[in-house]
Amino acid sequence: MTTSLHLHGKRGFDLLHDPLLNKGTAFTDAERDALGLRGLVPPYVNTQEQQLNRVYQSFQRKADELEKYIYLVSLQERNESLFYRLILEPLEEMMPIIYTPTVGLACQRYGHIFRRPHGLYITRKEKGRIRAVLQNWPHADVRVIVITDGERILGLGDLGANGMGIPVGKLSLYTACAGVPPAQCLPVMLDVGTNNQSLRDDPLYIGTPQPRLRGAEFDEIVEEFVVAVQELFPKACIQFEDFGNANAFRLLHRYRDRACTFNDDIQGTAGVTLAGLLSSERLTGTALVDERVLFLGAGEAGIGIGDLFVSAMMSAGLSQDAARRNCWFVDSKGLVVKNRTDLVEHKLRFAHDHAPAKTLLEAIAMVKPTALIGVSGMPQTFTEDVVRAMGKLNQRPVVFALSNPTSQAECTAEQAYGWTDGRAIFASGSPFAPVTLNGKTHVSGQGNNSYIFPGVGLGVLASEASRVTDEMFYVAAKTLASLVTEEDLTLGRIFPDLKRIRQVSAAIAVAVAEVVFARGLTRLSPPVDLAGHVAATIYQPQYRDYV
Q1: How far is the C-alpha of 278 from the C-alpha of 315, rounded, in Å?
Q2: Strand 435-437 to strand 440-442: parallel, antiparallel, or no bridges (unpaired)?
Q3: For residues 212 and 191, what is the distance between their CA atoms, to the nearest angstrom?
Q4: What's the pLDDT score for residue 8?
Q5: Active-site annotation, residues
Q6: Minimal CA–CA distance to 180: which of 100, 80, 263, 97?
Q7: Does 288 map to a domain?
Q8: Mapping DSSP to helix (H, G, I), strand (E, B) and coil, where does residue 137 land?
Q9: Does residue 511 register a pLDDT over 80?
């Protein structure tokens, strides 16, 4: 392969400032002579391993998590290969920095720590010319797009354009966890204003300081975006991320049969939670069809989990009505029941003919759940009374506090284990440190969507799927649960060790691609060796020789 094919004609200063191509001090003497780099980099030629040691030491010297986040973003802007080598080596140490919980703080302060544009920003002013904006992106073979409008960033609310940290972080996880090539990833901020007055008053806010756009014009902008993506990047999958409830369900329903798209807050969260429930059965002995799940929170995540849980129970033999009777929801007004007159559409299918309950504790007494799942964004709502009530009902109570970031979790790992004498099967959205109780160490599972969406995306990419279906998230959940080892379970962990995330994502990708080929959702013919085909698409952050 010639140098020009590798570098697209770039050399010298331009080459050093392309993070996808830059090798910094690792350019060889021959490359320095051939590519006009002589004198532009220090004379000593480093290996990538030497560079890795240097940047890891620099990372460790940073005073706090936000400074570490800023350092990693800066490294990504300079040298993508070295960035991914760094975060892959100790992924369990890096993931809380590049994503939850630190990314939440980074988004809150995004305008104040802003260094360099990353991704595309689309505003109301670009209406009618969104296609031209997308054409400004320098990479033609885009396969994965993560778009947000910043209205519901994690459990932190409306952060407007500051929410760009989420698409950037999610796409970093696509590459780190599943090997989706970074040149095929595009983060997009749909900046349609914010209702966060403090941001609008902040002179360093990077977005449009106007009230959030609603109604027909918002829909027209989204429609123009989706159509433009389909024209310019026909193999791309669009992931909607952190849209508010009012738009999230509606947009998923509108586009799921028209475009290759999914909503990670609804479907990805559902996949990882179902996997956790399937894994927990090996500890509780409760069959899936006998589970009674009580959700605190009836928004995107909760309803998404409920829908996938119903599909899984139907596959195990229950009718849809029977499956839905095993799912109960508590929202800000109490138990979701039929005689309430304030229910929005997405809650109605889970509204049961039952007496009302105003509090979560009352609902637990009535429903007698085998599993309690928190997706409320309300911290410390799994009180001691609540968790102890679950412990009285179940020998091994399943307690998932999934709200992100850590500050929004419904309870901590220490609380869940302490209030149940170590009997709880606990998982959280953001990581908690191991808890030692009565001489035994409990390692809780992190029910992070990064176990699901990168593998699903890789499977969609490798198969060139035209659609993303709920079945794909179901097989992803089953695959993830099957990869939990006895050693994991002994520690109390109901998800695989993060050190195995690339193997996990590859296995999920194969399972998803099998669905794509079986359902005829691609123009490709099934490869003879599907696992080998998937493996061949995986990006490895190693330097290439240019000369």
Answers
A1: 13
A2: antiparallel
A3: 9
A4: 80
A5: 99, 170
A6: 80
A7: yes
A8: coil
A9: yes
Predicted pLDDT at 2: 35
Q: Is residue 401 located within the same domain as residue 423?
A: yes
Q: Which residues contact 384 (CB under 8 A, 6 or more apart)?
A: 415, 419
Token readout for 22 is: 């830059």
Across 151-157, average pLDDT: 92
End residue of a domain, out of 410, 432, 448: 448
Express each pLDDT in 356-398 by its tens digit. Answer: 999 999 999 999 999 999 999 999 999 999 999 999 999 999 9
Do residue 387 and residue 291 come from a single domain?
A: yes
CA distance 76 to 74: 5
Tokens 């990047």 map to which residue? 233
The set of residues, in sequence order, having a beta carbon less than 8 Å from that of 195 and lying 6+ positions away, is 158, 211, 212
Q: How confident is the model at residue 445 (pLDDT cuts 50, 70, 90)?
A: confident
**C-alpha to C-alpha distance for 424 and 415, rounded to whole angstroms:** 10
Name the CA radius of gyration of the chain, rounded. Answer: 24
Same domain (yes/no): 107, 63:
no
Residue 89 pLDDT class (50, 70, 90 cuts): confident
What are the beta bridge partners of residue 406? Answer: none
C-alpha span between 515 and 472 (Å, rounded):
7
